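Cross-posting from the chemistry board since nobody answered there.

I work mostly on the small-molecule side, so proteins are not my area. We synthesized flavin mononucleotide and want a rough idea of how it might sit in this target. Sequence and SMILES are below. Is it possible to get a predicted 3D structure of the two together?
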Amino acid sequence: MGKKELTAQCLIPVRLIYLAGANVDGKPNFIEIASGGILSYGPPMFAVPIRHHHHTLKGILENWTFSVNVPSVELAKEADYCGTVSGANTDKVRDCDFKISYGKLETAPMIDQFPITMECSVIQILRTDVHSVVIGRVDGTYISEELLKEGKPDFDSLAPLLYFAQKGEYFTAGQSVGKARSIGNELKKS
Ligand SMILES: Cc1cc2nc3c(=O)[nH]c(=O)nc-3n(C[C@H](O)[C@H](O)[C@H](O)COP(=O)(O)O)c2cc1C
């Protein structure tokens, strides 16, 4: 397949949507994010790239804590709303009717309606021209009881909210294409 070089960019077509949350001047606020993600499993760490001017970043810098809230497709409207208006001008928690809880960090607001939430403490912030890449350690992980099977996370019933960047559209996961660490085995030389 012939390829054409484009301007250098992070050309990843599909991304998982999540909301990052922080208390800004003592009030919970949430920003929709479709970049960054898992940085490490041990310790569990996230990298969340946030444009310098966003309201949520102000709260992260105030408390050095934030939350990661993973929606299901049923929460697409609320997620999109949090990605189109700023907490500097409106109360997104009120507008979306979010119920808020705090965990052990006490200043990282988590949304009760979101099936998976994590509270994080900031380890470092990497400043690029456009983003403050907030690097956080996950200090608490919470999952709704409906997603537990025999005490373990079971995601069969979770329709994740994905973002198709080039189309500017949300969608959810399609069909399975094979078992990980298995379908590639046939290419292994015996
Ligand atoms: C699909 C989608 C993905 C987004 N991803 C990011 C992102 O990764 N980083 C970022 O800084 N802003 C991102 N935004 C923009 C912010 O969510 C948006 O500007 C938001 O209103 C900022 O809220 P705040 O000012 O209350 O913090 C995204 C918006 C949408 C619609």
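Reply from a structural biologist on the board:
Welcome over. Reading the output above for you: The helical segments are 55-63, 76-82, 92-96. The chain has a mean pLDDT of 97. Happy to explain the token format if needed.
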